[in-house]
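Quick log. Single chain, no ligands specified.
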Amino acid sequence: MSRFLVIGGAGLLGAEVVKALGAGQCVVASRRAGERVDIADPKSLAALFDRVGEVDGIVCTGGAARFRPWDQLTDDDWAFSLANKLMGQINVVRLGANRVRRGGAITLTSGLAAQYPAPGSAIITTVNAAVEAFVRAVAVEPAITARVNAVSPGWVAETLQAMGRDPAGGIPARDVAQVFVHHLHEGASGSVAPAAKG
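-> predicted structure:
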């Protein structure tokens, strides 16, 4: 039986990925449930990989970045976002790639803001674009035997609903999860798969 590590597995997308992969095949890691981890802390990540051991693949839906108007962004907003969504995911690969069995993959999360910035998205656009550049760069590194790719979600219907907006403009989390599962199993290294309403 395959065994997968889902970092961020207690969140909206991560929980749907766990369902789609099969809960019995997944080790869930997050800040608040399952195996505890703070992806902004390399020591916490290293300890997670030591506890979990070898897996067939890793999905990372964890990592936060702040969305605020340009004139309200602080040094802390930038530092927090870079440490979490960018360096956190980079360190998932740096520290976890040697725990993935040959033929397996690490699938990270970017977001469509990388291609479609909007007012208030300066940090998220920057971080998502950097995650995608990182995935492309790692794909050409011969020392990494795991495939490394990313999924780029657009607006998720449940997130829109929680914000009091029309969920019809988004894609259901379960559908985004199917893109993650497909990319984990078959996505080429260095590729980024969009997951958004067409």
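The chain has a mean pLDDT of 94.
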